[in-house]
Amino acid sequence: MPPRAQPKTYILLLKTHKLTVFLTAPITATIESLKAEALTALQSSVIDAKLSNPDGMDVDEEPVPKVGGVKDFELSKSIRERGRPTGRYEVLNPEAIVQSVLVNWEPVFVQFKDENGQLLPVKVVMPSLFDEEDEAEIAAARKGKRKAAPESA
Q1: Nearest to 102 by CA among 77, 82, 75
Q2: Which domain of life is it from (predicted)?
Q3: What is the largest CA-CA distance in the chain?
Q4: Global pTM value
């Protein structure tokens, strides 16, 4: 079987707060052009609709900050150790080529800047793979069950 051809366009997940936006980028594009696409997504009317409808927001949910241009935020990727996220993020170089710093379907995080131009921490809520009710049912079903000890001969 011949090796699978690499995609010419990456699909990337732009994440901030509880928002996820799917962006497409040619593998030869720069991070700067990806930032321009992210800017149009962050200025879209969908975000304004969420702000104007507080009933759709959770009580503890912060709104996504308003951005005026690409200078108001940076794109970052999660630093991983042994395949697991560490909670730390690395700012992507705007001149870098997408293919050299990202992989297809990789999450890209928005790091907003404060009024002094300092980077704010990444704020993102990763959704649970299970509903809270499902997690409680799984825990209750496993309660008191242990793996049998191996029999020695």
Answers
A1: 77
A2: Eukaryota
A3: 73
A4: 0.76
